[in-house]
Amino acid sequence: MSSSQPPLDSFQRLRELRHLLLRLHRALLNSERVVYEQFYGRISSSGEFFRLVLEHDWFSWLRPISQFIVQIDEVLSSKEPVPLQMAVSLLEQAQTLLQPVENGTTLEKRYYRAIQRDPEIALMHSEVTRLLMVSG
After folding, report:
1. How far is 37 from 40, CA to CA, in rounded Å?
2. Cβ proximity of 27 and 124 under 8 Å
């Protein structure tokens, strides 16, 4: 960001975060699918994959990210005025949620491994981190 540009407001950052998280979530799902298929065999259809994402323990670590995206959607699409602090709080929650830690929680460990094995995911994580570090 050049010094001539004003800092992004929290709601704009939240909109950008949502966009990045959707891309990241899709990449994580695809990456996990590849690893899952190495262990369990080919997933035969989109419907079966969707069912596995919703129900199988293999994909359970991704559910908090899915739920977080829904929270952001609810705030951004609210018909009622949303306090600025709500956007700030969601941005702070994203920093906590998206921590890749080699020996952390299940989500942190699986996210760490996904970043290690997939350069596309590592790049997206870097983009999210940069957005979250911008002071708004």
Report:
1. 5
2. yes
pTM, full prediction: 0.88
61: pLDDT strictly greater than 50:
yes
Task: Copy the structure tokens of residue 135.
Answer: 């002071």
Contact (CB, 8 A) for 124 and 24 = yes
Alpha helices in the chain (DSSP H): 10-40, 46-55, 63-76, 84-97, 106-117, 119-133
Q: Are 62 and 53 in contact (CB under 8 A)?
A: yes
Q: How far lies 84's CA from each of 12, 19, 62, 115, 134, in Å?
A: 11, 19, 27, 32, 16
Domain limits, the chain: 10-133
Q: DSSP letter at 77?
A: T
- The pLDDT of residue 39: 95
**Are 72 and 17 spatial neighbours (Cβ–Cβ below 8 Å)?**
yes
